[in-house]
Amino acid sequence: MTLEDALRIVINPGLALLPPGFDSLPARAMLLAIGQQEGDRFRARAQYHGGPARGFFQFERGGGVKGVLAHPSTKIVHSVLDRLQYKDHSPEACHTAIEHNDALATVFARLLLYTLPGALCCSGEFDESWARYIAAWRPGKPHRATWNEYYDNAWGVL
Q: What are phi and psi of 54, to 5 degrees?
């Protein structure tokens, strides 16, 4: 999937489910960069080798999914789940849903970023954006060598 396609069919529909204040160029850039970093350039809906992460943003049930569902500043996720006709808001059900519902996966990813203090980063702020990604996703095996390219690619699409 191209980054233009990811923006059009993954990220835009997800951001449209949230209030307008959640949509910004820095948010779009972070989502595009994280989708490249975590989802193997938007190719992996499930973690390779049978790992527990799901969706293009590679959420784990007990990590990001549970965190977004429980965080006081991201309670809006429940109204999004209701609008999408998901009656079961459990971490297990949401984890299953985000593997194939890209809009919902985007909502979870955007809301996870929202839990961090401070503003999202601008173009060219590679170290700062990397630090925010690490703080939110807490990847087990982070690959710093690819981040600058992915973050730059994201801003190039925007």
A: -135, 155
CA–CA gap between residue 9 and residue 140 (Å, rounded)? 28
- Three-state DSSP at 71 gives coil
Domain boundaries, the chain: 3-157
69-78, pLDDT tens digit by residue?
A: 999 999 999 9
DSSP string, 106-128: HHHHHHHHHTSSSPPP-TT-HHH
Look at residue 21 and give its three-state secondary structure.
Answer: helix
Going from the C-alpha of 56 to that of each of 20, 31, 51, 118, 157, the distances in angstroms are 22, 10, 13, 25, 18
Q: Specify the pTM.
A: 0.97
Distances (CA, A) of 74 to 71, 90, 111, 153: 5, 15, 6, 28
Going by C-alpha positions, the residue among 109, 120, 135, 106 that lies closest to residue 24 is 120
